[in-house]
Specification:
Layout: E1 2-3, E2 15-16, E3 23-25, H1 33-51, H2 57-70, E4 75-85, E5 88-100, E6 104-109, H3 117-129, E7 133-138, E8 148-152, H4 159-164, E9 173-174
Parallel strand pairs: 1-3, 6-7, 8-9
Antiparallel strand pairs: 2-3, 4-5, 5-6, 7-8
Helix pairs in contact: 1-2
Amino acid sequence: MHLCENKKNNLAAPYLCENKKLLCETKTISMTENELSRIIVNTAFNIHTKLGPGLFESVYEEIMNYELTNSGLFVERQKEVPVYWDNLKMEIGFRADLIINNKVIIELKSVKTIEPVHPKQLLTYLKLTNLKLGLLINFNEALIKDGITRIVNNLLFCLAKSLRRKDYFSTLKLCEIKKTT
């Protein structure tokens, strides 16, 4: 295998080079949660544009897994995450739909309405895994931008700066920001 120096794809897993002939390994380059979020949101948009709403959650999960893996991201699907209580370890406290590059949890839904418990559930997952960013994506919306909720856990970033920019962040709903002390 050849080591690609393709700066366009700063990913931590194998991918096809631009010439599509050689399978290349990238250098392990750390992507931020926001960079990963951009890729995830674009992927969800593309899937929703092609398929639309109304399919089972498992269909969207399978396709998201396929597309994100093919884009070179490290994806863990239905990852069993333990929960600890005092000296008790529960091997399967919950199953995360998708965990991307050990940095972002994606919780997928295909429901009529997101219930108030859904963002809270994802925030709990973030706290238990000590991850900073989660995306709650409901594919059962006419416009996918209305189905994407960004959940943050102790992530420091400038909200005002994000809202001034004319990028995808302005269309995402911000649920909770907590500053670390």
